[in-house]
Amino acid sequence: MSVDLIMQNILNPPILFFFLGMLAVFLKSDLSIPQPLPKFFSLYLLIAIGLHGGYELSKSGLTLDVMKALLLAVFMAIIVPIYSFFILKIKLDVHNAIAVAATYGSISAVTFITGITYLQSLGVEYGGYMVAAMTLMESPAIIIALVFVAIFSKKDSTKDNAKNEPSHTSWKEILREAFLNPSVFLLMGALLIGILTGDKGWTSMEPLFGALFKGMLAFFLLDMGLVAAKRIYELKKLGSFLIFFAILMPIFNASIAMMLAYFFGLSKGDAFLLALLSGSASYIAVPAAMRLSVPEANPGIYLPLSLAITFPFNISIGIPLYYYLINLLWS
Predict the structure, then answer these.
(1) CA-CA-CA-CA torsion sign (198, 199, 203, 208)
(2) Do the beta carbons of residue 50 and residue 188 sit within 8 Å?
(3) How sure is the predictor about 150, in pLDDT bands with cuts at 50, 70 and 90?
(4) Residue 122's closest CA among 218, 209, 12?
(5) What's 233's DSSP letter?
(6) Hey, which of 185, 203, 246, 296 would disulfide with 95, CB 3.0 to 4.6 Å?
């Protein structure tokens, strides 16, 4: 892989702000972002990417290429948590294996957004419908985790049965969390608005959600750098197996997505985004759902893995690595 690809990605202002946030924690600086603002940055990024994706989808329509990309996205969202669970079960108990598998079976919207910025810097085209693919990939891992809890949880006593077996109410709450969690709901809503308003709507919103996008992403990644660096200290409690898993599994998942994308004839930009989504891990939606559906799992395992290892790896090394591999295939 060319060093130029890595440096072009790292020497991107938003990425550098991420590492600046990490450096602030390591040097024990008092730098912080007031708590309401990170949530605002998240809302802004989700609306911006949803609107733009809907606008692009309104131009392309529901073609065969769109359907192929969406179906591949759903397929990856289903198989990744399944085989991840059986790999993790070698070293972890059932509940922690389920939680980590679900985390890596879902996606990171910010990693996706950073990947889009990378493609734009290279002038590589991609389909706006990949925003819909991202949205579809967020929830299946939560549903699969629910099913695995019901199948694999050990029920040693009546009390444990009552505690571990999801009731009708808990199923209802988890399904609601899976399909109506804020990020999915806002992304789908913004996507629909972008489709309905088309070119006229995007033109009117572009000054806010287009021109300012990279600036807002820099603010968000600065905050993510602060949060990720604080989580790094928790990695001391994890074994080498999990640390290797957090680096190698994204590459493996992305490679499978690349092969499928190549076989089904996706464009280079769409294949890259599918691979990046498949190689990412959730640190917002799934952890929130796991606290509700798998309370026996330790958040000190699945959250640091995704946030302190996989997320920094993907936005610094993973993005140029996946693009390099796709260039080899598509050339």
Answers:
(1) positive
(2) yes
(3) confident
(4) 12
(5) G
(6) 296
* Residue 73: count of CB within 10 angstroms of its CB: 26
Task: Please state, in angstroms and rounded to a whole number, the distance separating the CA atoms of residues 127 and 129.
Answer: 5
Contact call for residues 301 and 99 (beta carbons, < 8 A): yes
- pLDDT, the chain, mean: 87
Between CA 142 and CA 174 the distance in angstroms is 8
Residue 295's pLDDT is what?
A: 84
Nearest alpha-carbon partner for 88 in 103, 100, 105 = 100
| 3-state secondary structure (DSSP) of residue 281 | coil
Cα(139)–Cα(124) distance, rounded to whole angstroms? 28
How high is the pLDDT of residue 178?
Answer: 63
Model confidence at 297: pLDDT above 60:
yes
Nearest alpha carbon to residue 137 among 86, 201, 70, 197: 70
Q: How far is CA 246 from the centre of its chain?
A: 13
How far the first Cα of the chain sits from its last, in Å, is: 14
